[in-house]
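Re-running Periplasmic heavy metal sensor to confirm reproducibility after the cluster update. Everything else is unchanged from the original entry.
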Amino acid sequence: MAGPARYVLVAVLAFLVALGALWIGQRMRSNGDGESRIHAVVHRELALDDAQRQQIGALEHSFEKRRQRLEGELRAANADLAAAIGREHAYGFAVERAVDRSHSAMGELQKATLQHIFAMRAVLRPEQTGRFDKAVAEALTSTTQG
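Result of re-run:
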């Protein structure tokens, strides 16, 4: 592949990586008010008892720190990708390595988010898990934010 076609391929690839990162974050986080749909269901619709509120609060506090760290890694990986594209202007070794790093960071964030989801689910009573599971499925399949 030569000339302008290489630039187009690299630009499309960078766009897709950024779009994937955005999609993952939006599906699991914001409903437009800064609160995830899952969080709203847990705290507003499941009638948590005091012990559950305390356990889930601790889980959320711990996950927030981990999420911030992983999102920082993803931003750094995407910055490396942008720099590699700027240096190589082609799908070369540095771009490929940066794409792999970005995919790895996205994957780690998604895994951590799912681990957090399952940890919260484990705190719920059987009569609460159906509504929770529905909220998770909705968050993952919704075509709109929220």
